[in-house]
Design brief:
Number of helices: 3
Largest sheet: none
Structural class: mainly alpha
Helix content: over 70%
Shape: elongated
Radius of gyration: 22 Å
Length: 98
């Protein structure tokens, strides 16, 4: 009885400190998790590149007056929507689901 209590506490500690946690007996889940991590990193880099491109191009044009304020605001909103839509692709990808 006492051993199982200690085991349960050790498992809780392992869960709280782990970067990834396998909850099934499938070792293939490790490769699935690594694939999802790579895809997430790729999408995050795409989002950062899109944001940097917008900020490098449109913000200076708006500052010097070549771009009207309403157009700069519309561009910023569109940029944000594109970033969110790009990130949402991760949730729609069925490759990593069971």
């Amino acid at each position: 009885m006492r051993r199982s209590r200690w085991r349960g506490q050790g498992a809780d500690l392992a869960k709280s400190r782990a970067d990834a946690l396998l909850v099934s007996d499938r070792l293939g889940a490790i490769t699935t998790a690594l694939g999802l991590a790579r895809r997430t990193r790729h999408v995050a880099r795409q989002n950062l590149a899109w944001s940097a491109l917008y900020n490098a191009a449109c913000v200076p044009m708006a500052l010097v007056g070549w771009l009207p304020p309403w157009a700069a605001g519309l561009g910023m909103a569109t940029s944000s929507l594109l970033v969110v839509a790009n990130a949402a692709r991760l949730g729609r990808d069925t490759t990593f689901r069971r």
